[in-house]
Amino acid sequence: LRCTGAHARGTRWGTSHSHHGRARSATLVRSRSSVVLRYHDAEAIRCFEAAAAADPACAMAWWGIAHASWSHIDNCRLDADVVDDPRRAQARAWAVAKRARVAAKRAVARAGVTSALECGLIDAIGRRYQGLLAEGRAAGDRTYSEALRLVYERHGDDGNIGALFAASLMA
Questions:
Q1: Among 11, 14, 58, 96, which one has the highest count of C-beta atoms within 10 angstroms of its own C-beta?
Q2: Using CA of residue 121, residue 139, residue 102, residue 43, what is the dihedral sign?
């Protein structure tokens, strides 16, 4: 992660090390773990929210919120308190989607100070949520996968990028 606020200097995607002990937000984001690859969406969202709170200028923290929220949108429909009420489930899912779109927009707004890899990931997530609200989930999935294909073509040697791209093809 490349968090550019006062708390972090010199961090990059795939690490959570501290440079001069100031990378508090980067240490909250556990890259190369199940958190980034969406195996526990709610925990990932909490982790990335904590990173964004610690360093609002960290574009990848906002990206993480948007990224982890994508599958969480569907999981909302399975919550015990709404599973028998489709309207409440849909309302909850759209609330998550709208919050995630805000996070994606914040990531896009901060992408200018990120690496080319991070900028590609942020562009992809921005396209995913733009497509979701304009044309529906299938459009969001399609535009995200197309954007991630470009990131993968440039950075395919990174296993995380390969996993993100492969997951996008299965959506």
A1: 58
A2: negative
